[in-house]
Write a structure and sequence with these properties.
The chain is of the alpha/beta class. The strands form 2 sheets. It has a 6-stranded parallel β-sheet, with helices on both faces. It has a 6-stranded parallel β-sheet with strand order 9-8-7-10-11-12, with helices on both faces. It starts with a strand and ends in a 6-residue tail after the last helix.
């Protein structure tokens, strides 16, 4: 029996997308034991996945301490894994790979760079552009399996596997009619559009559609979410009582909503994984090609400033482009609500035609 480890100690969206590695390697080795190593706050998207036999969770801050990292690497070495996949491909995961005794160590490298140490037995180049509807982020991860092992029918769709008990939970039992989840804040300030802009979008929806609005945000962002709520014109259509503190709870709740409108982030990938329509607003610094999974402009739609005002980006020097991620707020202001509504209006008209005011 093959023992296989997947290392993806990053944010929720990254972990969910990397679960496709488990789904595919189980096709290659059906009788294998697959473990998944991730930060503790992300594991809700992995639970109940039949292709993952063991979840190894760790605290993000603890792993950044070198003694803890080496202690963890030693414990993993003692497990005698046969195959390790490293879609994270950063210092922490590479040290774990290097110190392991795995026969196959498969991880990413940039095409123009040579690894300084033999972290991987099979270094795989990142793709330059997406070639499939799933987006480059998923395509790259499936490629880690496909380039090393015989994979006849790759599976490119991340899934969240809800239990029968979770499916039976009715979190919206006191709400009648359509329910729209709004991701009012990004996972980081750099992914969050200006508050007055998100308020204008919410006001448009509440004015024109008979639907209940729920807010999604991280627990520590509650104060900021309340600022957005207090600025909204039609508070009677916004239910602030229904909220899930856990990732797993949000996945269950999202599965019962009708759609998600959100800043780009983990909530978008969760909504897609439970097969709900999404409208995604990308921060200017985000590489949309990597994260725009299954966008068909009907079920999954999005907007990015780069596509709306391409000449704005062409005028930047390489140094200015690199500085966008550090301070995207000014550039985010260029993605005006009227620009977003130009795409959002027909999207809503298609999905919510029966509840238009």
């Amino acid at each position: 029996m093959k023992k296989i480890l997947i290392i993806q100690n990053k944010r929720i969206g990254d972990v969910l997308l990397s679960s496709v590695i488990a789904n595919n390697i189980k096709k290659v080795f059906p009788n294998s034991e697959v473990s998944f190593f991730a930060y503790d706050y992300t594991i809700g998207v992995l639970e109940n996945n039949p292709n993952i036999d063991r979840i190894i969770s760790i605290n993000q801050k603890e792993l950044k301490r070198l003694p803890k990292l080496f202690e963890t690497a030693l414990k993993i070495r003692e497990q005698n894994y046969d195959i390790i996949f490293d879609p994270y491909a950063k210092f922490q995961s590479r040290i774990i790979c290097l110190t392991s005794k795995a026969q196959y160590r498969v991880g990413f490298k940039k095409a123009h760079k040579k690894l300084k140490l033999p972290f991987y037995t099979h270094p795989i180049n990142f793709k330059k552009k997406a070639t499939l509807p799933c987006g480059r982020g998923i395509e790259d991860r499936v490629n880690l399996v496909y380039q090393v092992f015989p994979l006849a029918e790759p599976d490119y769709v991340p899934k969240i596997y809800l239990s029968e008990i979770e499916k039976s939970e009715n979190k919206l039992q006191n709400i009648s009619g359509r329910v729209i989840m709004f991701g009012v804040l990004g996972s980081t300030p750099n992914k969050s559009m200006p508050y007055e802009y998100i308020v204008e979008l919410i006001d448009f929806v509440t004015k024109n559609y008979k639907a209940t609005i729920l807010f999604n945000y991280a627990p520590h962002q509650k104060e900021e979410a309340l600022k957005i709520y207090n600025a909204c014109a039609h508070k009677e259509k916004i239910n602030m009582e229904i909220y899930e503190y856990s990732i797993r709870g949000f996945a269950v709740l999202m599965s019962q909503c009708d759609m998600l409108i959100s800043n780009e982030g983990g909530s978008v990938h969760i909504a897609k994984a439970v097969n709900k329509p999404t409208f995604t607003i990308y921060s200017p610094y985000i590489d949309k090609d990597a994260w725009n999974s299954f966008e068909d402009e009907v079920f999954h739609q999005s907007i990015h400033l780069l596509e709306e005002v391409p000449d704005l980006f062409k005028s930047f020097t390489p140094e200015e482009r690199r500085s966008i991620e550090k301070n995207p707020q000014e550039l985010y202001k260029e993605l005006k609500p009227e620009m977003i509504l130009k795409k959002l209006k027909p999207y809503l008209a298609h999905h919510l035609s029966d509840v238009k005011v």
